[in-house]
Design brief:
about 50% helix; about 160 residues; mainly alpha
């Protein structure tokens, strides 16, 4: 009996590109998760900064395994994922906040036909804060306090 689960095959990915994409996405999940915490909290902790640096390094290494043709097809700022010898924790944070959600969003559909894709996270779409309506100058409510036309209808004469 069939389970009813079907995976659609995404054309155009070689086995090497598929493995590299999965490796990039696995490490990007860790970086994305760290980026969900407050910046001061992550950058103040040496262990978190080390993990951020290691996972971004693993993402870079896996991204180098992608074929150049595949890299051109994916709309990701690859220049920000390149190794930088003068990298600061703030630069790592920028990669975590700006690049990683885009990597997840762009690369996840490429491996949607693999069973591993079921365990990949999807970044939350950014929502813009609703604009507050400006307060109108002056009084906005009548100060009748139950009176209509200056008279209280409950008191009859």
């Amino acid at each position: 009996m069939a389970s009813g689960v079907t995976f659609r095959l995404v054309p155009g990915l070689s086995a090497r590109d598929r493995a590299a994409t999965l490796a990039v996405l696995e490490n990007a999940q860790w970086v994305y998760a760290l980026g969900r915490y407050p910046k001061k909290q992550v950058l103040a902790d040496e262990i978190d900064v080390k993990m951020l640096r290691d996972r971004i390094g693993a993402m870079r290494k896996a991204a180098q395994e992608l074929s150049p043709a595949q890299r051109k097809k994916i709309d990701v700022p690859w220049a920000r994922l390149e190794d930088d010898p003068d990298e600061t924790p703030d630069m790592l944070w920028t990669v975590a906040k700006k690049v990683t959600p885009r990597v997840l969003a762009e690369m996840r559909p490429l491996v949607s036909d693999t069973p591993e894709a079921a365990f990949l996270i999807t970044p939350e779409p950014k929502t813009t804060a609703a604009k507050k309506t400006p307060r109108r100058p002056g009084k906005t409510k009548a100060k009748t306090r139950g009176k209509i036309g200056g008279k209280n209808p409950r008191h009859r004469r």
